[in-house]
Amino acid sequence: MSLYHETADILSAPSAGGNLKTRLFGNKNKRLKSPPQQIYALALETCKWSSVLKEVIESSELLRHERKLTPVLALLLVHDFLLSRKGIALPASHGLRAAIERHKARLTAELTRARLRRKAASVDALRQLITVESLGEAGLYPRWVRVNTFRTTLQDQLDTTFRGFTQVASVKDVTSAGSIAHQQLLHVDEHVPNLLALSPTFEITKTHAYASGAIILQDKASCFPAYLLDPRPEDGDVIDSCSAPGNKTTHVAAIVKSRVAEGDECKQKVYAFEKDQHRSRTLDKMVNLAGAHEITRMSLGRDFLKVDPNAPLYQHVGALLLDPSCSGSGIVGRDAMPTIHLPEEPSAGAAAKKAPSQRNRKRKREDGTAEDQGRQQILVDDDGQELVISSEKEMRIRLEALSSFQLTLLLHAFTFPAARKVTYSTCSVHAEENEQVVIKALQSEVAMKRGWRIMRRDQQVRGMREWPVRGSIEASGGDQEIAEACIRSYKDDGRGVMGFFVAGFVRDAGSEVGTDGKEATITNGHHEEESRREGAYAQASSTTENVQMKNGLGSTTRKPESKTALGETCGDSDDSGSDVDGEEGEEWGGFAD
Ligand SMILES: C[S@@+](CC[C@H](N)C(=O)[O-])C[C@H]1O[C@@H](n2cnc3c(N)ncnc32)[C@H](O)[C@@H]1O
């Protein structure tokens, strides 16, 4: 009994209760008797099917015959009765189960009618139609997949995992209405190497390539930072300062590795920091599954701000990637609260008996324009949980706090003595977290002293130079060069990507003075010191409290797992589709950022 009542409670929470994950996993105090995964799957699938189930319930007059059922409870039970392989998860003698099963003939007949009205030849065909319909906003976005060159090649994947796909000329073709229900389409991205846009309905989490880490779900925009950083052998070691879940860490490591001639040893290292212990576990799993552990040194649970830039271990770090926590305002709503279509109650008299809040709720969810929602803005935290902001003032305070933290991180990155390149990115659309952080960083004392400049558009890698959406001139204080240098994307402009921002910073060798007064340099021979640095690394590890350092090279017994828990999101909210993939603790999913 708890499963259906608990799921009904979750679905009936007020609109400010956040998305399904927040409602279910966010409230740690709430004691649930049923497994949260089961509630999540039932709620999601029922919402997905609710437009059909509403018709079935109304036409069969179930609520008129069974007065004890509420509209939500009826949806959940009828869903399991008609569509779940195991049927209703209650004993045969249970009252709720009996209340549905005594209408078996009528319910089944009404499902057939609903299917025929949609011109679906079978329940499977209906299922496909429903999947497309339920994607909502997410249907406008392809499934972005990065081919992980640690494990495979683009051509290999085109020849195997995507053999049955039809290649199309643009992202718009991939998501165009009508085609997505019937065919699997694919577009090879023209800006970022090894990136594919796939039909939004494709169940990528069921592929072997996904389970084995050969392909990674990652939004196109989330691939910009590592690609823009463009780490080359002469850049020395690389730092990813804010790493979990690890999409950009594994991407930057793949680029580093791709520049090593076959048979040669990769001498560069990628140092990955992640402050949060829980998210560190995800990072660890993702790095291993992606096969990036050989060149990635993870500092799990370690605050990047506490890293000493002058430590011998980091003296050859020439490139840093900074992708700090942000407001998440650019994230595409795959994770939004799904729409639920509630059946009408049988008569006005009966409806009046029900709590008015339930009727209001229906109106709110179906048109999505509830008055209170109009005033609220939702921010998404690093764990994909929603934070409801209800006033302009609250929003301003939140953005100020975020941008000050982001600037602090960026200025810390500027202090690494051998650093020549830094990328700064957010999945936010707010200028406060983007161009304004860039401007403040360029005007900072450390930038002036060390000669940091913006990486101009004409200095960027081809795909980023050619990407047409650039920063705001107004937010860049009227400086056209800075605005041009900044790379943006907007989630609703038809390009099929999330809202994102990235800017690069560069400086020349010889333009900086180290804190010790000496100039730091990177030479191609710097890795001769490798063993000395490994010693320093181990020492740093053992002296740092509450810090767990991992050296993938030493983990000879570690094998990629076919499935790892990756419930966290970080901008890449891509993998939380309505097919219950990517749900908490289920699968590894490169939350496309
Ligand atoms: C936007 S997410 C990073 C997403 C990641 N780059 C990816 O693409 O998969 C920000 C991450 O930074 C971590 N973080 C925040 N402050 C940090 C700090 N001072 N040091 C290290 N990690 C930090 C957060 O815990 C969070 O996991």
Give your account of this protein's structure.
- By secondary structure, the chain is an alpha/beta fold.
- The chain has 23 helices and 16 strands.
- It has helices at 2-11, 20-26, 36-60, 62-65, 71-83, 95-101, 104-117, 123-135, 154-159, 171-175, 208-211, 224-229, 247-258, 277-289, 348-353, 356-367, 371-375, 392-414, 435-443, 445-450, 462-466, 480-485, 530-543; strands at 143-147, 166-167, 185-188, 195-198, 215-217, 237-240, 270-274, 296-300, 317-322, 377-380, 386-389, 421-426, 453-454, 487-489, 500-506, 548-551.
- The strands form three sheets. Strands 6, 7, 8, 9, 12, 13, 14, 15 and 16 form a nine-stranded mixed β-sheet that branches. The protein has a five-stranded mixed β-sheet with strand order 2-3-4-1-5. A two-stranded antiparallel sheet has the order 10-11.
- Helix 1 (2-11) crosses helix 5.
- The model is unreliable at 349-375, 521-569 and 573-593 (pLDDT under 50).
- Residues 222, 241-248, 273-276, 279, 303-305, 323-325, 382, 570-571, 593 line the site of S-adenosylmethionine.
